[in-house]
Fold this protein.
Amino acid sequence: MSLYVLAKEKLTGFVEALQPNFRVVGPVRTQHGYAFDDITDAAQLELIYPTTILPPKKYFLPQRETLFKFHTDSDEQGSRRMKMEPVFQDVQPTVIFGVHTCDMNGILLYDRMFETGYQDEHYIARREQTYVIGVECLSPCDDASFCKDMGTLTAPPVYDLHITEVDGLYLVDTGSEKGEQLLLKYAEVKMATTEDIRQLGQSLSSKWPRFRHRLKMGKDQLPSLLTINYGANTWDELGAKCLACGSCTSVCPTCFCFDVQDEVDISMEDGERFRQWDSCQLYEFALVAGGHNFRDSKASRIRHRFMRKAKYNQQVHGLIGCTGCGRCERACLAHIAIPTTLNALYEETQIDAGR
Amino acid sequence: MVEVFEDAAVSEAAYVEEVMPSIYLPTVAKIIKVRTETEMEKVFTVRLPGGRPLGHAPGQFVMVSLPGIGEAPISVMSSPSRTHETFELCIRRVGNLTNSLHKLLPGDDIGIRGPFARGFPMDVFKKKDVIVAAGGLGLAPARSFIDEILDNRDDYGRLIVLYGARNPSEILFRDELRKWRMRDDIDLLVTVDRPDESWVGHIGVITRLFPRVEINPAKAMAVTIGPPIMYRFVTVELLGKGLSPDQIWMSFERRMKCGVGKCGHCQVNYRYSCQEGPSWTYAEALAFEEAL
């Protein structure tokens, strides 16, 4: 696609031009850190920010979402009747500014997940109405991140626009036709020159040394590392520490599991079926009819989470299920971290191999 | 250049009205008949709008809904060969939803989604001697499979059905069992764990029936459906009879919230039981952790 130049001071104008027509969201400073939120004042938007508390997944899979509304009552014969009408909640033209490359990789996995097999129309309806504006990460944003190890330090092709700061300018890459139209209609830009492109290349290639490695192995080794370590003691050790609170999965940009529940109003006739984020770290998650639980220990649930992140997602979607954003490490009350755990497994395996 | 911004402003209402279906929206079906099977189980005959066929394979399930109460996966008990304008579900009363379902009467509406999952691939059983080992409520999906064979009897070899229930009062489909017993093209053995005074049949868990059957492992295929605990012991018996793991099919029941491979609850390793299951061979199951 094409490359445009947006003067830095024109960003505010771009946001303001979008506001009457779109819900505009982006990273803003809050009391507890940065969070994706509605931009009410264009000056709130900051494109250099540490990892947000929650990833932008909340705009694609809301924490709680109505799937349909229903009405039940009885006809003259006393038979139970039901009517149901689908609801497409939060389907509105939305522009998400400033999405880090790790979070764009999260969206990539979401797209694969919800658009493969049975089409999840609720997700697709929102996804189609959303413009993703990414921002290139030129410096590490957070101590807990390990994006370089997970290969998420570059933008995957999910963005409509992607911004890279180069020498006091924003170079804007268009990832889709709708993104390009958005830019041309609402922002004051000019085409990038050969010199701009040269500087962009320099900026992109010089960013790598600024990021550190946290893993002792390559991400391609992860599926086999986890296969070998299925019976490792590490899982029991983590199980003893874990509080099974589910924070790690709530903040994860690739976790998408949900629970489905019904709620009726006081008339007992009208209500809705909704889905809400669920967590494989909770006891009830793998409980089946008859009371058998396939993962009744915390150790087995933590292991399942690691297996999903570093192996199963790869098997199903061809993508590692961890973006290296570091949110789970920051959210974990028991200080369980993915890189530390994987490194411990790796060390253990190395020792075993040498025996 | 294409102008997209007017399109972009499609409202939620327009989505609902115009195009968007929802994979989570049940079809309103009608209960035609309710039969009390045991103290715990009832059989519901269900008709989809216009009497359209369900189009399922033996071993598949539907998501059954009562708005306001919830939704759960229920195996289809009638075979495709006998499912035309209606289909049958055998529902055990165990929780909120199933207790509410038990209160329904003919004429009531019920929500149905599906059929979902991969059923038993009938082709692999053709020309083979088929052993069915069903425990408890597992006889419901097994019935779909058995009737399919009985209705296309010439396509299959011997049919051996082993059925275990906890006690005589929990035995399902007594009329059906009686009819099967009368036929000479099906070998039926029933056992109960805890007999009462009336019981004159076999006593003990289902594995106790295996010494009583002769199987030619070279041309046999087995299907086992029951509670998770049963599989471990039944597979030992089948392997002991000379069957290999890929000759043994089993049904993996999990809690399913969506039925369409999204919610994650039924995941067995990297696979979704609601999509690629619930029927897998023992050979496939051995490759999974936490499957059994």
Summary: The longest strand of chain B covers residues 27-36. The radius of gyration of chain B is 21 Å. Residues 1-11 of chain B have pLDDT under 50 and may be disordered. The CA atoms of residues 53 and 84 of chain B lie 5 Å apart.
